[in-house]
C-alpha cells in the first residue's frame, strides 16, 4: 500500500490486475477520455503497455472502500519532457502523473479530487517533488476543473500533443508547485 486517505487507497499494480485494466480500457465511456474509443485494450495489449515495459513509471491501482476503481501512475519527467515543457533550466524535482477512474459509477463523487490531492501530498512528502505536471487534453473540462481544484495551474498550451481518436489533440501543460 502506497498510501491511504479516508476510504481511498493506492497500491502497486499487480499481475492479477490485468483483467481490471482490460475491462476499464475496453469501456467506450472510459476510453472517450483515456486512450480513445478507437484504442480498446484486450489482456494482451494491457500486458504490453502496463507490464512488459522497463521504465521508471510507478503503476498503481486505486481502491475506494477496498474496491478497485481506477488506475494512477507517476514518474520523474525525463529530459525529453523537460525540453517539451520548457523546464530545461529548472533544477526542481519534477514528477508527472496520469490517472483515470475506470468504474464510471464512481465519477462525479469527488473521488478524483481526493485521489489527485492525495497523490500530490504523497509525491511532495515521500518523493520530494517540487513540481508535479500533467498534460490533459484541452477539451477535457471536467478533468481540468478537478486538477485546478487541487491547486494545478495552466502553464502552456501544447498544440497537437496527443493522438486521440485519430487526430492529434491540443493539451494543456498544468503544474502544481510545492
From TrEMBL:
Transmembrane feature ranges: none
GO biological process, one term: response to antibiotic
Highest taxon, organism lineage: Bacteria
Keywords, comma-separated and alphabetical: Antibiotic resistance, Transferase
Domain N-acetyltransferase: 8-178
One Pfam family this sequence matches: Acetyltransf_8
InterPro entries: Acyl_CoA_acyltransferase, GNAT_dom
UniProt xrefs under SUPFAM superfamilies: Acyl-CoA N-acyltransferases (Nat)
GO molecular function, one term: N-acyltransferase activity
The protein's name: Acetyltransferase
Amino acid at each position: 500500500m502506497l498510501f491511504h486517505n479516508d476510504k481511498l487507497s493506492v497500491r502497486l499494480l499487480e499481475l492479477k490486475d490485468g483483467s481490471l485494466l482490460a475491462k476499464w480500457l475496453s469501456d467506450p465511456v472510459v476510453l472517450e477520455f483515456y486512450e480513445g474509443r478507437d484504442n480498446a485494450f484486450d489482456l494482451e495489449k494491457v500486458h504490453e503497455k502496463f507490464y512488459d515495459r522497463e521504465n521508471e513509471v510507478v503503476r498503481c491501482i486505486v481502491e475506494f472502500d477496498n474496491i478497485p476503481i481506477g488506475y494512477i501512475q507517476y514518474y520523474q519527467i525525463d529530459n525529453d519532457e523537460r525540453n517539451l515543457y520548457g523546464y530545461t533550466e529548472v533544477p526542481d524535482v519534477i514528477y508527472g502523473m496520469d490517472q483515470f477512474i475506470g468504474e464510471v459509477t464512481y465519477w462525479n463523487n469527488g473521488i478524483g479530487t481526493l485521489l489527485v490531492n492525495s497523490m500530490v501530498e504523497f509525491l511532495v512528502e515521500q518523493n520530494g517533488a517540487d513540481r508535479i505536471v500533467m498534460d490533459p487534453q484541452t477539451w477535457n473540462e471536467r478533468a481540468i476543473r478537478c486538477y485546478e481544484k487541487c491547486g494545478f495551474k495552466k502553464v502552456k498550451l501544447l498544440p497537437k500533443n496527443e493522438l486521440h481518436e485519430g487526430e492529434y489533440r491540443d493539451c494543456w501543460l498544468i503544474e502544481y508547485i510545492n
